[in-house]
Specification:
2 copies of one chain form a homodimer. Chain A is of the alpha+beta class. Chain A has 2 domains: 143 residues, PurM-like, N-terminal domain (60s Ribosomal Protein L30, Chain: A); 167 residues, PurM-like C-terminal domain (Phosphoribosyl-aminoimidazole Synthetase, Chain A, domain 2, Alpha-Beta Complex). The first copy, chain A, has 8 helices and 14 strands. At the A-B interface, helix 1, strand 1, strand 2, helix 2 and strand 5 of A face helix 1, strand 1, strand 2, helix 2 and strand 5 of B.
Chain lengths: 339, 339
């Protein structure tokens, strides 16, 4: 590997001196810069127009850094934008902390910074402040990114799982498992990998449309790590109610279905990065479904189940074959480093 | 090494499933929990009492994780609190993202989480939201932490280096170079390491006292990576003025001076984590100095130089021997992974 400082990140790029300034001014600010970020002060002063804000953070450690349909850069932006959106807030600003491994090529870094810039533009958020560190060369990691986000609380229904009642409907805004399967396919070098793309996308507009439908939405969550199964298990636990899910109604593409079988994975437990689970009264479900389908990211939205009084509170899947099985939160080993 | 899941972090702790829930509920929430963090939602809704907030972030990659006078946990809290304070804001809430290496012992994790809790209490900030990821075992890293912070803009002078004029005074709130030298001593196993402690501390109270003095403070910055030299070089660049610094007035302890010589380091370029550089009109300098000295973290505060019209804008050090040398921003290789 060529060790030239001209082509690769070296430790000194993280030292806080002249080389750090160069890295920022030549490779980061031209793409991500704005009036808040450019002065490189210790923080950014933001105006806010409400007295309630949302704060969120996520660390991204996905391997490989670039995968079919996205990379760690757009993932770090969309993941945090989506966390703000499912909290019922309008994304305003993100912070961006890069921990780069010595030896990362500038070509890869440049592509990822471009991807961050494009995703931030699509999500209409500023990168307000950031930090860059460099750690010694080791095997194969390259880059971890931590974003934090600030959103302004929007007018809308009170999102609180405690408001859920028997009869409420469970919806998912699109086809499941595509992010995790795309990353795993790339990692396993599966030959059909190009057919399956990560669903990584910013959901703020889709969710604003769902809220604007006037439905009494009680809960929103993006099913990332732990997948749909993890969110459903949390919902049963937090609401104290059971959920009956109809497997045949869960949207999944044929290629995702096939890939999950090849990899021996339950698609219900696989991470999504451009989907949202929503709960609303059964009577409001069609209204939300219509709002979803008017947005490109919601065209495959579907009502997949409903809450019941059955005790103890569990998630029960009615399978395509007509059988029943419990859905539980995955234990944790299935898919490391997927986001 | 014992591989038992009972004593060490394993990959599955980062999978977002049952084991992640256990890690959070047994080891994190009992120490850091509060009404915002406990629900483990995708973000925290905060009330803010001003229409101007500050957002900041820092990634911490220090090695070793524990060093004389502190550890990566209190460093991650204090560093972000200090960034909020030098922006003239009151720290309100932090986010906390942990990227843990598989194999980290629970004993070390527990100590660091305790240290985070103690520092957050001292700084009077909530850990409002967080994320935990686990990456595969490799050599010796253990843990990186990224904090982001929200502060509320306080009443006070406009902090802007463009307001600096010739005759303005440069102050530092205490003895320099102690954080970086303590970390380097621990790394190099120097025998006198126990004498030298990191200065890591939250500066919000000290800075609020300086602002409350009524002085027209024009600039505040905590000299972390790049040290005092880095801040002075930035100040000359941003103000367009020169700075004359009197070496004999720069506070440094005998043990720090000696350690820097042993390690072949210029203490001006070494990181601090509990100090602040301030600029104010020469006539206001004594007022700020008095305010500093009334706080335990400011007892060694000193006026170390002043701005001049000399061109081109440079930082000139008048040495103890009466000579003169330029102070420049370090290039970047001196002290990797110090914070």
């Amino acid at each position: 590997m060529n060790e030239s400082a001209d082509e690769h990140i070296i430790l000194a790029h993280g030292g806080g001196g002249e080389l750090t300034k160069q890295l920022l001014s030549e490779r980061i600010l031209p793409k991500l810069g704005n009036d808040l970020l450019n002065p490189l002060t210790d923080g950014a002063i933001l105006g806010v127009s409400t007295d309630k804000i949302c704060m969120t953070t996520d660390a991204y450690v996905v391997q490989p850094l670039e995968f079919p349909g996205g990379d760690i850069g757009c993932l770090a932006v969309c993941g945090t934008v989506n966390d703000l959106a499912v909290m019922g807030t309008r994304p305003v600003a993100l912070s961006l902390a890069l921990v780069i491994e010595e030896g990362l090529s500038f070509a890869v870094l440049d592509r990822i910074v471009n991807s961050i810039a494009a995703a931030a533009k699509e999500a209409n958020v500023l990168i307000a402040t950031g930090d860059t560190k460099v750690i010694e060369r080791r095997k194969g990691d390259g880059l971890t990114i931590t974003t934090a986000g600030i959103g302004e609380l929007a007018d809308g229904p009170a999102l609180d799982a405690a408001r859920i009642r028997a009869g409420d409907a469970v919806m998912i805004t699109g086809r499941i498992a595509e992010h995790g399967l795309a990353v795993m396919s790339a990692r396993e070098h599966l030959s059909f990998e190009t057919e399956l793309l990560s669903d990584v996308a910013p959901l703020h507009e889709l969710i604003q449309g769902m809220i604007a439908s006037g439905a009494d939405i009680k809960f929103l969550r993006d099913p990332t790590r732990g997948g749909l199964a993890g969110v459903l298990a949390d919902l049963a636990e937090d609401s104290g109610l059971s959920i009956e899910v109809d497997e045949a109604t869960i949207p999944i593409s044929p290629v995702a279905h096939h890939t999950a079988e090849m990899l021996g994975l339950d698609p219900l437990t696989v991470a999504n990065e451009g989907k949202c689970v929503a709960v609303m009264p059964g009577d409001d479900a069609e209204k939300v479904l219509d709002a979803c389908r008017r947005h490109p990211l919601g065209e495959h939205a579907a009502i997949i189940g409903h809450f019941t009084e059955a005790t103890p509170p569990l998630v029960e899947l009615v399978t395509r074959a007509g059988g029943r099985r419990m859905v539980t939160r995955p234990y944790g080993e299935e898919l490391p480093r997927i986001c």
